[in-house]
Amino acid sequence: MQNSITFKNAQISYSDQGKGAAVVLIHGFLENSTMWDKIKPELIKNNRVITIDLLGHGKSDCLGYVHSMELFAETVEAVLKHLRIRKYILVGHSLGGYVALAFAKMNPSKTKGLCLLNSTSFEDFKERKNLRTRANKMVQNNFETMVKMSVSNLFHQENVLKFKDEIEAVKKEALQTSVQGYIAANEGMKNRTNENQFLKESSFKKLIIIGEKDPVLDYQTSLEEAKNTNSEFVVFPDGHMSHIENKDLLISTLKDFIKSC
């Protein structure tokens, strides 16, 4: 069941289920809380699981035309303060990982663990910044085409037919995102800072889940990142959408990580 709070005059949608260690699941770009629907039932058996629709996604409002990682993190903080949760384990997928990093940086002593799921502590490289700038121009006139293409490109190519129905469902949810939400998140990601050093120096439990055939994040770069930031890592065999492409592996990996925090 979705609830909401008001943050700076914007409605922020969230869910809160289960009992035990607080686990905060943060979705990625063009996703929303529904991305965790196949993962959450297993986690709430032994944990209190909070999912949040980020600004401009799902049922949450936009707040201006640039949603920085810090602004996203402030909305997560507002929800957790409302729920009076003082310690938590963070799991962030893609954009959600960037937000989780920004949030952990604001609250390091309250963070018990952080899992970057198909995500990175690196900033955008120049080529990706340019891609985001072009996408933000194109999406104003070709929103549906851009969104559908973006979703398909997240999967390992060999999985596109295998997960045809799931991909259509992801596209349907992605199209609920407003043009403003798309642009604001893209601008925020484009301008985010490098958090390698913060991740390396953090004392909380750290895990990076890497897709061996991730079309977005380079496999070797992710391996080096994990080693250089003193993070544990697990390699899954497929693409950027591990919650679909490697669902069972993800559930077991997250259960083990949560127990270890």
The name of the CATH topology is Rossmann fold
Report on the biggest sheet. Answer: 8 strands, mixed
Report the β-strand fraction as a percent range.
Answer: 15-25%
> What is the rounded distance between the termini?
27 Å
- Residue share in helix: 40-55%
Describe this structure in words.
With about 260 residues, this protein is of the alpha/beta class. The protein has a single domain (about 5-260), classed as 3-Layer(aba) Sandwich (Rossmann fold). The chain has helices at about 40-45, 70-80, 95-105, 125-140, 145-150, 165-175, 180-190, 195-200, 220-230, 240-245, 245-260; strands at about 5, 10-15, 20-25, 45-50, 90-95, 110-115, 205-210, 230-235. The two termini are about 25 Å apart.
What are the salient characteristics of this protein?
261 residues; alpha/beta; Rossmann fold; 8-stranded mixed β-sheet; 11 helices; 19% strand; globular
Task: Annotate the secondary structure layout.
Blueprint: E1 3-7, E2 10-17, E3 21-26, H1 40-43, E4 47-52, H2 69-82, E5 88-93, H3 95-106, E6 111-117, H4 126-138, H5 143-152, H6 164-174, H7 179-190, H8 196-201, E7 205-211, H9 219-228, E8 232-236, H10 242-245, H11 247-260
Parallel strand pairs: 3-4, 3-5, 5-6, 6-7, 7-8
Antiparallel strand pairs: 1-2, 2-4
Summarize the structure.
By secondary structure, this protein is α/β, with parallel strands linked by helices. Helix content is 42%, strand content 19%.
